[in-house]
Protein backbone atom coordinates (compact mmCIF):
# COMPACT_ATOMS: atom_id res chain seq x y z
CA UNK A 1 0.00 0.00 0.00
CA UNK A 2 1.23 3.47 -0.86
CA UNK A 3 1.96 5.60 2.23
CA UNK A 4 -0.41 8.30 0.98
CA UNK A 5 -3.35 5.89 1.18
CA UNK A 6 -5.42 5.44 4.29
CA UNK A 7 -6.73 2.05 5.30
CA UNK A 8 -9.81 1.81 7.50
CA UNK A 9 -11.47 -1.29 8.90
CA UNK A 10 -15.16 -0.56 9.32
CA UNK A 11 -17.43 -2.68 11.53
CA UNK A 12 -20.99 -1.32 11.35
CA UNK A 13 -23.06 -3.65 13.53
CA UNK A 14 -24.14 -7.21 14.17
CA UNK A 15 -26.36 -8.57 11.46
CA UNK A 16 -29.91 -9.38 12.48
CA UNK A 17 -30.19 -12.58 10.46
CA UNK A 18 -30.34 -15.18 13.23
CA UNK A 19 -26.60 -15.30 13.94
CA UNK A 20 -25.75 -13.11 16.94
CA UNK A 21 -22.02 -13.66 16.38
CA UNK A 22 -22.04 -12.47 12.77
CA UNK A 23 -20.52 -9.06 12.15
CA UNK A 24 -20.86 -7.09 8.94
CA UNK A 25 -17.21 -6.26 8.23
CA UNK A 26 -15.98 -3.96 5.49
CA UNK A 27 -12.54 -2.76 4.60
CA UNK A 28 -11.99 0.44 2.69
CA UNK A 29 -8.78 1.92 1.37
CA UNK A 30 -8.69 5.44 0.05
CA UNK A 31 -6.47 8.48 -0.21
CA UNK A 32 -9.65 10.56 0.07
CA UNK A 33 -11.33 9.52 3.35
CA UNK A 34 -14.54 11.43 2.69
CA UNK A 35 -15.18 9.33 -0.39
CA UNK A 36 -14.94 5.75 0.92
CA UNK A 37 -18.56 5.23 1.96
CA UNK A 38 -21.98 6.61 1.10
CA UNK A 39 -22.59 9.92 2.88
CA UNK A 40 -25.53 8.68 4.96
CA UNK A 41 -24.12 5.34 6.16
CA UNK A 42 -23.13 5.28 9.86
CA UNK A 43 -21.17 2.74 11.86
CA UNK A 44 -20.84 1.56 15.44
CA UNK A 45 -17.08 1.01 15.23
CA UNK A 46 -14.38 2.52 13.01
CA UNK A 47 -10.72 1.54 13.34
CA UNK A 48 -8.09 3.79 11.77
CA UNK A 49 -4.31 3.76 11.74
CA UNK A 50 -1.78 6.24 10.32
CA UNK A 51 -4.53 8.60 9.13
CA UNK A 52 -3.37 11.76 10.93
CA UNK A 53 0.10 12.48 9.59
CA UNK A 54 -0.63 15.93 8.10
CA UNK A 55 -2.97 18.75 9.10
CA UNK A 56 -5.04 18.00 5.98
CA UNK A 57 -5.31 14.29 6.81
CA UNK A 58 -6.31 15.17 10.39
CA UNK A 59 -9.12 17.35 9.05
CA UNK A 60 -10.21 14.67 6.55
CA UNK A 61 -10.18 11.90 9.16
CA UNK A 62 -12.18 14.03 11.60
CA UNK A 63 -14.72 14.82 8.87
CA UNK A 64 -15.02 11.14 7.94
CA UNK A 65 -15.68 10.23 11.58
CA UNK A 66 -18.20 13.05 12.01
CA UNK A 67 -20.11 11.83 8.96
CA UNK A 68 -19.94 8.10 9.63
CA UNK A 69 -19.95 7.49 13.39
CA UNK A 70 -23.39 6.50 14.61
CA UNK A 71 -24.71 9.24 16.96
CA UNK A 72 -24.60 8.27 20.66
CA UNK A 73 -23.43 4.72 19.87
CA UNK A 74 -20.51 4.98 17.47
CA UNK A 75 -16.90 4.85 18.57
CA UNK A 76 -13.69 5.14 16.59
CA UNK A 77 -10.23 4.07 17.64
CA UNK A 78 -7.48 5.99 15.88
CA UNK A 79 -3.90 4.74 16.23
CA UNK A 80 -1.50 7.61 15.65
CA UNK A 81 1.84 9.06 16.58
CA UNK A 82 1.87 11.98 18.94
CA UNK A 83 3.66 14.04 16.29
CA UNK A 84 4.71 13.40 12.69
CA UNK A 85 7.97 15.30 12.24
CA UNK A 86 8.18 17.51 9.17
CA UNK A 87 4.53 17.16 8.14
CA UNK A 88 2.67 18.62 11.14
CA UNK A 89 0.08 16.00 11.96
CA UNK A 90 -0.36 13.80 15.01
CA UNK A 91 -2.64 13.34 17.97
CA UNK A 92 -2.81 17.02 19.01
CA UNK A 93 -3.56 18.19 15.46
CA UNK A 94 -6.23 15.52 15.11
CA UNK A 95 -7.78 16.42 18.48
CA UNK A 96 -8.01 20.07 17.38
CA UNK A 97 -9.67 19.14 14.07
CA UNK A 98 -12.07 16.70 15.76
CA UNK A 99 -13.12 19.15 18.48
CA UNK A 100 -14.14 21.70 15.83
CA UNK A 101 -16.54 19.07 14.44
CA UNK A 102 -18.07 18.26 17.84
CA UNK A 103 -16.19 15.00 18.29
CA UNK A 104 -14.85 13.96 21.68
CA UNK A 105 -11.31 12.57 21.73
CA UNK A 106 -9.96 10.64 24.72
CA UNK A 107 -6.60 8.92 25.02
CA UNK A 108 -7.27 5.19 25.35
CA UNK A 109 -3.59 4.23 25.48
CA UNK A 110 -0.06 5.62 25.25
CA UNK A 111 2.79 3.52 23.88
CA UNK A 112 6.29 4.80 24.63
CA UNK A 113 9.26 2.47 24.21
CA UNK A 114 11.71 5.28 25.05
CA UNK A 115 13.39 4.89 21.65
CA UNK A 116 10.95 6.10 19.03
CA UNK A 117 8.06 8.48 18.59
CA UNK A 118 5.32 8.13 21.19
CA UNK A 119 2.21 6.45 19.84
CA UNK A 120 -1.34 6.95 21.08
CA UNK A 121 -4.62 5.14 20.70
CA UNK A 122 -7.40 7.71 20.59
CA UNK A 123 -11.04 6.94 21.34
CA UNK A 124 -13.37 9.18 19.34
CA UNK A 125 -17.11 9.64 19.90
CA UNK A 126 -19.73 12.07 18.62
CA UNK A 127 -20.77 14.75 21.11
CA UNK A 128 -24.10 15.22 19.32
Automatic annotation (TrEMBL):
Residue segments, region Disordered: 12-33
Ranges annotated as biased composition (Polar residues): 18-33
InterPro entries per record: SAM-dependent_MTases_sf (IPR029063)
Name used for this protein in its record: Uncharacterized protein
Organism: Proboscia inermis
Amino acid sequence: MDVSEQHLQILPHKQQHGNDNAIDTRTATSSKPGSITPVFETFNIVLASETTYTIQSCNQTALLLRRHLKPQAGVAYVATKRYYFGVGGGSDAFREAATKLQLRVDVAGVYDDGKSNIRELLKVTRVC
